[in-house]
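input
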Amino acid sequence: MGLLKKKILLNISLSAVLLLGASCAKFDYLYEQGVGQMSILSKGKDNQEMLKSVRVPKNHKEKIQKIQDLKKYFYHYWDKKETKIYSQTTMLTNRAVTYLVIASPYQEIKAVENCFPLMGCFPYLGFFSLTSAKRFAKEKEAEDLVTWTRPVYAYSTLGYFTDTILSSFFEYDDYELAELIFHELFHTIFFVKNQVDLNENLAMYFSEHMLEDYFKSINQLDYLKFQMKKDADEKKLKHQVVILANELQEHYKSLLPKTKAEGEEILNEFIEGRFKGEVMKKCQELDIQPKDCFPLERKWNNASFAAFLTYEKSSNDLASLQKKLGLDLKGYYNWIAKKYEEFQNQSSEEDFETYLFK
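output
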């Protein structure tokens, strides 16, 4: 189901640990994440050393070489100077590199933001330790919030550090890997301060649309057609989930649950009585096997719906805007970059996403 389930922006830097004005809890969080990040960096080894080592399995070497090729293609495609990102590889002890926690109120589908001095606000927090992630989720649940915790296999430090290839990347097939690397590298050429959702959606949009040009360039047209058909069906399925999530949101507005228990009852009745049946019908219509019908596998609650809706809405907005402008992908990127320059030179209090789509 694309990169939404696989990646996260790391929203801290080690220097943030020194910020004054942060609460003790936030200070502890920033410190723990800084230590975790430095641990990953310290274990990184030069790619050429990894490729020559007899201790590195052949299939891992092939992935490292593929990532180097994707990196070269990306910067040449956008006519940008290569950075040192992904010049080293870190072998992890676990399959996941970090764990994401999103919290939402029980009476509506809305991600609760976590804010930090100078760094802005984020609709989730990431933890290198599963124990810490579970502890944070438990704290949020005690505040009558609904939470969703999931493993994450890739992230970006947004230039705070020089990111390494992570062994968790090796879990992806060639199509997923290309999308992932293009996604993460996009953050190195374009980033809007304090707008996590927009940054993620821009990276997702441009990485997805680069795939066609890339696989054509390496003469894998049949593979490309298969994956594009799969993606098209998946988008139709995602659209069905969006429709159903919006229905649930309207139920909350009309029924106005007064307690968390009432909210859970509304959610469970909707999932069992409406959601599962409509999703199964859509999968059958698209000839998607039950085992591949991802909405039936996920545990849905307000927090997981909130994460899903955030990404899907902005992705559709970006597609509509490109169509309206009538620009190809490179022209569209240049137009957005120019709009951001204009935005930075004006004094309006609106955010860039509002400025971009108005």
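quick obs: The chain has one domain: 1-358.
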